[in-house]
TrEMBL record:
Organism of origin: Rattus norvegicus (Rat)
Pfam families reported in the protein's UniProt record: Aldo_ket_red (PF00248)
Protein name: Aldo-keto reductase family 1, member C1
A Gene Ontology biological process term: steroid biosynthetic process
Gene name for this UniProt entry: Akr1c1
Binding site for substrate: 117
Length: 323
């Protein structure tokens, strides 16, 4: 990790800021909130912005980025922007179409990182939903190696500086790494990761292959009813995490974020509250002892807040493997 620049080098030579700003919000949150929050985040010092086609907020996030470029706060090259191809576009002929739609929404010429959002394909639908009359997802089967080949073309075309994956297990990563004629390796795997799901085995595997692990839901979860089991424990209320936070005189959220940085994980922090957005930048102001890191490692319960339950039954469902 390059602490001066607060970035880590990707296998293709580009650099990713180790702290990212997540822009996902439940559908009932007005899209204008993403515009306001992204501006606040850039003003606070965030340079890594994470979004996706399926979040349907790239128009607002792009406007925020461009407004901060226009007012002289940043240059385009200062911003590391991540987008993701949605499952209804996993067919190889549709991957670049999805990226071009994102770029049109963003009004940017390229993204810094483009990810396969999930290894599971859905039936090609223009509205991103691919559901039947009972709101059940319409599964499709696409070889992820074919999707990856289309991702490589996006990189070669200059539309994405780097390419990676999200929500892939070890077996699915190995499938791409062992693909005949592989031109560009995945630079990262973005997965749910926090002290209750520390992904130790997947992290070790990724490190062995020079793949950066990027953590989402690093503070637990937004607890959206549609996606999350409300009976699961609240990570930031964990007594051990809170005791460590009290010891360092920082918030439990900052301890959870710092935990990831100490492990060499790139971490996304999502908040639309100005105070918390600014607070999250303080993660660089302290370090955790190796003893406290071991205590935090001991919190692992393999609790997955984002279980992907709507995708269960899909032949490429990634969360049944151990890692």
């Amino acid at each position: 990790m390059n602490s001066k620049q607060q970035t880590v080098r990707l296998s293709d030579g580009h650099f990713i800021p180790v702290l990212g700003f997540g822009t996902y919000a439940p559908r009932e949150v007005p899209k204008s909130k993403a515009l306001e929050a992204t501006k606040i985040a850039i003003d606070a010092g965030f340079r890594h912005i994470d979004s996706a086609a399926v979040y349907q907020n790239e128009k607002e996030v792009g406007l925020a980025i461009r407004s901060k470029i226009a007012d002289g706060t940043v240059k385009r090259e200062d911003i590391f922007y991540t987008s993701k191809v949605w499952c209804t576009f996993n067919h190889p002929e549709r991957v670049q179409v999805c990226l071009e739609q994102s770029l049109k929404q963003l009004q940017l010429e390229y993204v810094d990182l483009y990810l396969i959002h999930f290894p599971m394909a859905l039936k090609p639908e223009e509205d991103l939903k691919a559901k039947d009359e009972n709101e059940k997802l319409l599964f499709d089967v696409v070889d992820i190696c074919d999707t990856w080949k289309a991702m490589e073309k996006c990189k070669d075309a200059g539309l994405a500086k780097s390419i990676g994956v999200s929500n892939f297990n070890r077996r699915q990563l190995e499938k791409i790494l062992n693909k005949p004629g592989l031109k560009h390796r995945p630079v990262c795997n973005q997965v749910e990761c926090h002290p209750y799901l520390n992904q130790r085995k997947l992290l070790d595997f990724c490190k062995s292959k020079d793949i950066v692990l990027v953590a989402y839901s690093a503070l637990g979860s937004h607890r959206e009813t549609r996606c999350v089991d409300k009976s699961l424990p609240v990570l930031l209320a964990d007594p051990v995490l809170c005791a460590i936070a009290k010891k360092y005189n920082w918030t439990p959220a900052l301890i959870a974020l710092r935990y990831q940085l100490e492990r060499g994980v790139v971490v996304l922090a999502k908040s639309f509250t100005e105070k918390r957005i600014k607070e999250n930048m303080q993660v660089f102001e302290f370090q955790l002892t190796s003893e406290d890191m071991k205590v935090l490692d001991g919190l692992n319960k393999n609790i997955r807040y984002m279980s992907g339950s709507r995708f269960q039954g899909h032949p490429d469902f990634p969360f049944l493997d151990e890692y």
